[in-house]
Design a protein that fits this description.
5 strands, TIM Barrel, transferase, 208 residues, Pyrophosphorylase, two-stranded antiparallel sheet
Length: 208
Amino acid sequence: MTMLDPAMVRRAVEATLTEDAAADGITTRWSVPEEGRATATVFTRKPGVVTGLPVAVEVFTAIDPEVETTPQISDGTRVGTGDVLLKENHLIAAGGISAAVRSARAAAAEGRTVSVEIEVRDLAEAEKALRARGDWTMPDNMPLDGIEAAVRLRDSLPGARETGPERSGTPAPRRLRELAGTGISAASAGALTHSAPALDLSTRLEAG
């Protein structure tokens, strides 16, 4: 197997992080204490073959040399759904929903104005997010009855902000009418980006 040139990988990673403005990631800078520590786990959602782990490790190292990355498999390994590869969670690292929102609000007050969006997994987290007065509460992969309950809770709390669902990996456009009936304010779908099919292109040359 041909190994990647480490210097080439480093240059590509640095260029990509610069283009992505990785150093200006306000979600982490404003909600996670600088001295905070957390363990992140990357896992698969679908079966497949893993490639590019050395590049992933270089990305973490470039962002923070103190990050310890421990691959659990090697490049070229076939994996199944749920297999662990290398989960980040800003809320865990920040010490909870209320702490994360307070930290983000305090940092925003020093300069730029931002919208604070809180991802929640169940009704208990939705209540914490609504009471913390984030700008948006985003139920992630919650069932319709859970989203409806979150909307009712939002409407019952004075001063609560907007609520909208995010269905990770689900083609939300097919379910917009169903989701609209829950009383949400907006909908988003990760499938619009991470599941966009690649266009198959080829080149044909003709003499003359």
